[in-house]
Structure formats: structure tokens, C-alpha cells
Amino acid sequence: MSEVIVRGKAAKAASYKMSGKTTAEKNEALAKIADQLLADKDYLISENAKDLEQGKKNGLPDSILDRIMLNEKRIEDMSAAIRLLIDLKDPVGESLETIEKENGLLIKKNRVPIGVIGMIYEARPNVTIDAATLSLKTGNAVILRGSSSASYSNQALVGSIHKALAQTSLPVDAVQLMEDTSRETAKELFHLNEYLDVLIPRGGKNLIDTVVRESTVPVLETGAGNCHIFIDESADYEMAENIVINGKTQRPSVCNAIESLLIHESWFAKNGTDLLAVLQGKGIELYGDETVCTAFSEAKQATEEDWATEYLALKLSVKIVKDVTEAVEHINQYGTNHSEAIITKNAENADIFLNGVDAAAVYHNASTRFTDGFEFGYGAEIGISTQKLHARGPMGLPALTSTKYFIYGQGQIRG
Amino acid sequence: MSEVIVRGKAAKAASYKMSGKTTAEKNEALAKIADQLLADKDYLISENAKDLEQGKKNGLPDSILDRIMLNEKRIEDMSAAIRLLIDLKDPVGESLETIEKENGLLIKKNRVPIGVIGMIYEARPNVTIDAATLSLKTGNAVILRGSSSASYSNQALVGSIHKALAQTSLPVDAVQLMEDTSRETAKELFHLNEYLDVLIPRGGKNLIDTVVRESTVPVLETGAGNCHIFIDESADYEMAENIVINGKTQRPSVCNAIESLLIHESWFAKNGTDLLAVLQGKGIELYGDETVCTAFSEAKQATEEDWATEYLALKLSVKIVKDVTEAVEHINQYGTNHSEAIITKNAENADIFLNGVDAAAVYHNASTRFTDGFEFGYGAEIGISTQKLHARGPMGLPALTSTKYFIYGQGQIRG
Fold first, then answer.
1. Chain B interface, best mutation among A92, A107, A197, A214, by max B CB count within 10 A
2. What positions does the domain Aldehyde dehydrogenase occupy (chains A, B) (predicted)?
3. What is the three-class DSSP state of A171?
4. What is the pLDDT of residue A377?
């Protein structure tokens, strides 16, 4: 049996045990993991050093090495995040619907764990802890498949988790880490429908696209954000400037930052060059359509590719449109269904935009940067779903649950 | 461009128009379709006759020919079902969550259409009408891919739908029927992630398995039911007998009928042969384990395959277990996560069973035959989901919707 099958079977068996665990039992286990990480700090850092050394030898860029790196502060942060998770409400057991039938049948639709979660991610050891603890909190088992460039770190972290679980009533097998991190085992996970209930990719666009395109296990797609702001004819200048600057510069590397600006032609004729000069002053490289480039010679000509690009950097494409309908059509053609905003005083145009744009989150007069589980008040975030089924937008703990109908009778049969 | 791509693009464009339609507009269109089917009755029957003639030539069995057959009564029933659908609550627009932030942001999570639904089904022309009208009611566009053996009927039915839609504000393109019903086009649909938001197979186990195994488009898995009843030590004899007879014989060909009976060894020692004699008297063929066959010589020896078989006929496998835990383990190994029942007076064992069995619907002292959208009071049924994500158990109209966050601000930016 391949490692994937062995771990799949073990995780499935553990998931049945997990589903019966109380909130108290799960929280106790999380507390033990938080403690164990602190107790194992030195060992974790020394194992992490092996990954860093290997990474340097392999010529990994500094940005990746920084993602892999564990130090005291980062381990303390992981431990603290687990403490916050303990305080969050356990969604399992919540009753979503109660139906009482005339024949006396009582039907309850309750939240239950999903079962076995597969997590495929890149060189970020913190995802190991994050994915494992979110899965345990929601009564699931998890199979972790990280990057080979963080193998020593991941093994050590899962070692700490296992040490902690062994002191609790939770099954140690509920957290499985793939040792073989080859492409072949990833592909095997894509088709492990028998044991995996869901597969969640966490990382860059390429990873996510590969999982979505190849996996027959149901996927929770998170991620890519080619987000737009549309400045309508009636938009207040100051509000527009503030929101665009916030959307583009407050944290350019994240998925809810904006990548493209659409401006109504009349508004542009009045305020366009002022706004573009301010943006350029903030260090933003501008890629414009013909109207933009004519009015503001320092903008570069945008190509077809620019409209579809998630720069994740201080770059912005700018296009002039004749009305809200053209803005909506452009966004539905080039967007990634993440977060989209309109700035306008016109309530009718706001409605056309919010209803017409096909995205997880649509904004009227606010920055797209708010699309975030913590900002929405969910307290923990599995990711931001850009798909339509199961969960859409920022996913809190309930996204890691399913439902089950419990039906209570006194001998009822169907007539 | 292949037919699949052409229809995918057209359906996607239509889905954007559909999402803005009001309940009144959608219901008006449904009423027009209900009328049009009655008006086109003669033409529909004459086109259907071509499928029947072709089917006879190709040697299709009578049971399939009966499924394909349209007569006045069946067309009137389809039309009447649409009238019932009109009366159901439109889930689109329902607000599921409202969050007011301290900074004044108002966040609403509302139900919206999914977008484009793909429906792959077998030789049942009624599914053409069912799938199209459920999709329209929920603001979606749909691509229908039926069986070649019902091609004339499906074309005629979709012709009626198009005639009706042309008199309304709804886009005619919202309902697309594949003309090419080859295996190749089905496979193309499995991977049409760019235009299809979900794929729903309706039909037998082979069809569903193929779609689940091959599709990278998210699937709503409906269907197969290898359902069990477990008679615990303390079960009332009469209640057990009634529920088992109802579960097996009331309608043996459906997914929520039972296929396998598990009996506690002590209960079996007391009541087993009485019950088996009654079941045999009802014309049920029994396949038992060794204990069963020894006690009741007319039972045939069950093979490993029997435990996993959905007979959909008057056949029942019977196994003796030593306790509720063995029953749960057996069901989790051989079941299909559909509907499972325990008959017991012991509340603790009921809890162990209901929580431990991994199924969409779990019953205490009632027949599994109740797993049904109409019985639950949902009024229409897309199918019964046996998967964990998005929807589980009987699916009403909300299963054909997604959600979207609408965020209303006054210039808020993230700090």
C-alpha cells in the first residue's frame, strides 16, 4: 500500500473517533499542543535550521527562506493563535433546522465534522499548525502535504502535535503528515475520493489552479484576487482617492488588494489626472488604456494581459468605461470572483453593480481590503473561498463542517 | 468551437441576465412554460413516438421504453409540477447573516443563484423539464445533457421551453440542450470549469460514479443508497417488523429503501426466525451470514459482495452483530452515506448509532423511507445528496443557490 492509502485509511478511522469528541476534549487537546510547541521550541528551531541550510544550498530566494524560518517569536505566535482558537465557538452540534411532522417525527439538521480534510500547501510551516488545529477544533482528521523545502520543520511540528495528542483522548492519527512530498503523492491525493472528503490548497495561483483542474476530490478553492474598484460618475473625489490608495497600497501582496481601476469617462475628464498623479506619487506604476495614456503620459500602455493580472505589487491597471454596465462586464470577464467595489452616490448604479458583479464580496463605498475572516468577525480564517459551492468569501470554522439529519420517531413508517 | 464551449459561453452570459430577474418575472416564465407544454401536447407526443420507435428497433427493454414514453397524462403531470414550483418560496435574495461593524460597515450575506448548472441524466424526458424549471426558479442558467435515446423528446420539450421564454423577460439562452450526446461531449462537460459552476448527475450508480470520478467541475453527488436497519437488543418486536417491512417493500426500487438488516445476537436468538419467516412471506429473498443460514435454512449464504449491494429489488442481506458498535462499523464500511436506522429502547445505544454512523440521515425508531424532500417539507427535490460539502441529504431549492457578501460603507478604509 502506498503512503497515501495508508494515511487515508488511518485518517478515516481517526475521523470516526474524532466526531464523537466533546468541545471540552478538543479544547484540552489544543491547549496541550499550544504548550508542547513552547516546550519544544529549541528542537523546532534546530530542525528548522536544517531546512534553511538545505534551502540556501538549493538557492531558494530570501523571501522563501523567510517564510520557512522559525524563531522564538514565531513559535510563540503559533502557540498564541491556538489559544485564540480555543476561545472560538465550536460549530459542531449546532442545530440549523428543526422540523416537526404531523406524524410525530422530529427532524433536526445539525452541524457535524466533514470527516477527513486534505491540505496541500507550500513552504510555510505555520500552515502545518494552522491546518492541524483548525481541523481538530472542528472534529476532523487531516492529512497534511507540505513542501519538501520545509520537511524537517513540518516533521518536528507534527511530532510536537503527536506528543500532545498522546496525552489526550483524541486519536494521534487525526493528524497525518505525508513524508513523501513528491508530485506523485500530490496527484494521488487529488483522486483519493474514498478517504478524503475535501482538499484545500493553500498557496499561490499555480498550486490552486493545479488542484482545481486535476482533483476529483471536492476542493475548497481559496485565493487569487484580481480585484477592481469602479469610480462612478457621481463619486466623491476624496472618498475615491482614499479608497483606491487603501485598496492598492495598504498591503499590496494580499488577495483583497486591488489590481485594476475602472473610471467613468465623465469623472475621469474632471478628476482623472489629479488622481493618477497622486497614485504615481505613492510609487504605483500605472498601466492605462489609450484615454488614460493620452491624458497622463507617464502611464504605460496596458496590454490585454494586464487586465487579467494579479500584480500583488505596487502596479495598477486603469481603464476608462462609459457606464456602470461596461464596468460590470469588464469585471465579469477579467475578475477572479473575489472582491469588487463601486464608489458612487447613485443608489441605482450601486445596485446594478452589486447585483451584476459575480464575486464573493461586493462593496459600495468601502475598500476591498475588508474581505477577511477576522474583519468580518469570524475570529479564524480557513481562507477566502472564490468558488460557489459550500462556502463563498471568508471562511470561518463552520466551513470545515457538514450537516446531518437526525430523525427521531416512535415507530413511524411511510404510507 | 465545440458545441460544449458554444453552449457554455451562451449559458454563462444568460446566467448574468438571470441573476437580476425578480421572483415575479421567473414565476411568470414558469407559468408560460406550464401552458406551452399543454399547448404543444400533440407535437411532444409525436416527437416522443420517434424515440420510442428508435428504441424498439435498438432493442431497449420495456422498462426503459416506459421511462421514455410521454402521454397526455404525463405531460399534464409535468405541467402541474411546474405550477407547484411557482408556489414555492424563491430562496434568492434571502439574507442569511447581517453583521454591523463598529466602523459603520454593514455586511450582509445573501443567497444568490449559483450561475450555470450542468445536468447529465439518462433516458427520462421528465428530467429535462424538472432540471430546467428548478434552475430557472433559482435564477440559474442550465446546460442539459440527456440521453440520445430520448433526443427527439428532449429537443421538443426544450423547443416548448424556448417558445415560452421568448414571450418573457428571461433570456432564451438560459436553457441549453446538448444536441451531440456522445461520450466525448459528456467528458468535455466534466472539465468545463470555466463556464460550469456545478455538475449534477441524475441516474444510476454507474453514471454518478463516472461523473464523480472524472469531473473536475464541482459535483453535487446524489443517489446510491445501500441503507441499513439495525435491530438492537431491546427493540420492540412489532415496531421492528413494521419498520423493516416498510423499509424493504413499500417501494423497493428507490434509494432510501433498505438493502441490509443488522440484528443484535440476543434479539435474533429470541425473535430472529419469526421475523425472517414474515419477511420471506412478503416475497423477500434473504441472504444471510452463517448464524442466519443455520437458524433459517431458506436463507441463501451472503457473499462479501452482498453487504455492499444496492439490490433495488425484493432482496435483503441479513447479518448478526454482537452490539451497536459492530453495527456502526459494518455500516461505515459498506454503506453509501445515505439513510441508516436503529430500532432500540436504549437511548445510549441510539446516541452511539446516530452519532457514529456516517450518513446524510440517521433514524431512531423510524423507517429510512422518509429521506425525501417532499416528506421533509421542502416541496421540491433536486435529489438526495450523499456528499459532505454544500448540501447533504434531501436538497430543496436553496441547494441550487450560493451566497454573496454585500458590504455597504460610507468611505471606510482598512487601518
1. A107
2. 9-270
3. coil
4. 87
